[in-house]
Amino acid sequence: EAQIPFIHEFAIEIIFRGQKVGECKLDFVVARKVILEFKALSSLEAVHDRQVISYLAASGLDVGLLLNFGAARLEYRAFSYRFYGWATIVLSLAPQYNCGASRKCNWNML
After folding, report:
1. Can you tell me the distance from the alpha carbon of 74 to that of 38, in angstroms, rounded to the nearest whole number?
2. Range 60-78 average pLDDT
3. Torsions phi, psi of 25, nearest 5?
4. What are phi and psi of 85, to 5 degrees?
5. Residue 2: its pLDDT value, please?
6. Average pLDDT, stretch 51-73?
7. Please, which residues bridge with residue 105 across strands?
8. 56: buried, middle or exposed (CB in 10 Å: 19+, 13-18, 0-12)?
9. Alpha carbon distance 55, 49 (integer Å)
10. Contact (CB, 8 A) for 46 and 39
11. pLDDT at residue 83, as a whole number
12. Largest CB tally within 10 Å, which of 2, 80, 89, 102?
């Protein structure tokens, strides 16, 4: 049985111009590399994407996953800053992942 380390409700400080201006709690941080943000809404909106992107910027982590269990079907999105700057990677149930109209992403590169 694999033991994957995680932290639930990981608190990070929001710093602006050297001053603490707030704090937020990430739902989960897995293996000190991936943010998991869970929602239970009828649908995801752009504000939820921005929330995960803000968490990535504040935490210094490279990968964030947004999962919504409240819709009729599971909605999920991945965000990465590691290779191409800010990019949303739309995941599908197919074995390949869509990184845009013309190129295919290798999820293992993240």
Report:
1. 11
2. 91
3. -115, 120
4. 80, -170
5. 74
6. 89
7. 97
8. buried
9. 10
10. no
11. 52
12. 80
pLDDT in tens, 4-41: 899 999 988 887 888 888 888 999 999 889 999 999 99
Instruction: Supply the DSSP string of the chain, one letter for each residue.
Output: -----EEEEEEEEEEETTEEEEEEEEEEEETTTEEEEEE-SSS--HHHHHHHHHHHHHH--SEEEEEE-SSSS-EEEEEE-TTTSSEEEE--SSSSEE-SSS-EE-GGG-
Is the pLDDT confidence value at 99 over 60? no
pLDDT of residue 102: 35
Predicted confidence (pLDDT) at residue 47 exceeds the cutoff of 90: yes
Rounded to 5°, angle at Cα 20 from 19 and 23? 160
**78, 105 in Cβ contact below 8 A?**
no
- The span from the CA of 66 to the CA of 44, in Å, is 9
